[in-house]
Amino acid sequence: MSKAINKICVNVMIRKSIYFRRNLCINGVSTKIKIIKIKNKAENFIYDLDKNSTDVCLLLEHTSKIILSDLKTDLDVAGTDYHNKVLVKGKLLANQNNFINWKNQGVKNIWILKSNYLKKLFININSTLSTKELI
Q: What does the alpha-carbon distance between residue 7 and residue 24 come to, in Å, rounded to a whole number?
């Protein structure tokens, strides 16, 4: 499975089809973290995200629910509204069934980052996660 994920990531980097041209921005400041926008089959990208050597995060647009099981590592997850404000933070735990339903909290987009990145990047409730820098 890990080889398949690495191959997908390499193909994505070559094609740049679902990579955003801009990097992840936190509170209007750009980082070096690339964004992969996921439309369907999110599980294929989420598994082994921590083993990917490049700094990437996953963006699941227009969704507030995810169900995952059999993750190999813990991952950080944040839910934002359409104004890019972080409403909810959490963790996806390894070797457990992970079910997130943040519809009642107003979540419209889910961001999945490598383990401990929420803490490392100082992402808190009411922070802004987006694809655009403040001008």
A: 22
Tokens of 21: 């041209």
6/49 Cα distance (integer angstroms): 9
Q: Which amino acid is present at 21?
A: R
Cβ atoms of residues 26 and 123 within 8 Å: yes
- Please tell me the pTM assigned to this model: 0.82
pLDDT band for position 89 (cuts 50, 70, 90): very high
Q: Are strands 25-26 and 29-30 parallel, antiparallel or unpaired?
A: antiparallel
Cα atoms in the Cβ-side hemisphere of radius 13 Å centred on 16: 4
Torsion of Cα atoms, 19 then 94 then 67 then 37, to 10°: 0
Token pair of 106, please? 């107003």
How many whole angstroms separate alpha carbon 89 and alpha carbon 92? 10
Nearest-angstrom CA–CA distance, 82 and 114: 23
Residue type, 72: K
